[in-house]
Amino acid sequence: MGREPRLYKRKGFNRKTHTLFIIASEGEKTEKNYFSFVKDSIDTGTKNIFIEFLETVNGNSSPQSVLRRLNEFKDDYSLIEDDQLWIVIDRDKWHLQDISTIARVCRQGRYGFALSNPCFEIWLLLHFLDVSSETIEEKKALKENKTVNKHRKYLGQKLLEHTGKYSKNQKDYSSYINKIRVAINNAKKLCTNPKERWPNEIGTHVYKLMEALIS
Description:
- By secondary structure, this protein is of the alpha/beta class.
- The chain has one domain (19-214).
- It is 43% helix and 13% strand.
- A five-stranded mixed β-sheet has the order 2-1-3-4-5, with helices on both faces.
- The longest helix is centred in the N-terminal third of the chain and has 16 residues, at 30-45.
- The protein is globular and about 55 Å long.
- The termini are far apart.
């Protein structure tokens, strides 16, 4: 006989007024730091959203591992219908079959599925660049995201050019916060088929999560 789910309790969380967003992501650094900054900004400005971020630890970043963290959280805590669970992963290094399986499980479990192609950095870049207006060659380079030097890949280099500073470890995303709606609109321009489960070309469905958060 399994144990009863616990009540979710965190400092600042009010079950009567908050909708709980549980976000499990692939990356150990970038996604955690970005969503932590977003969490602080949203929690300060509103009274109806609370974000719980389930971070990757010790390199357990496979889509299956990310989904497992989300499932374990759902089993551990007593959630309500309005609470939202989201998985945030990259397309770049995973087999198509793995992605398809995770997408199917998310649909069956009513989880939000926010995949970025090739990786989460494309979402960050969309805060500053309308990628849909770039040349075919540039879109190809962004999607391939090859290593340009020992410090970063192509998307990281583009972020550095547009923001003046970028690293996977950075924690200050203040220049991004006021551009979230810009990023959403830019992501929608790349999303030629909103009904597809994930972007097969360059793009990201993180915008769907962000729309839910700031709506």
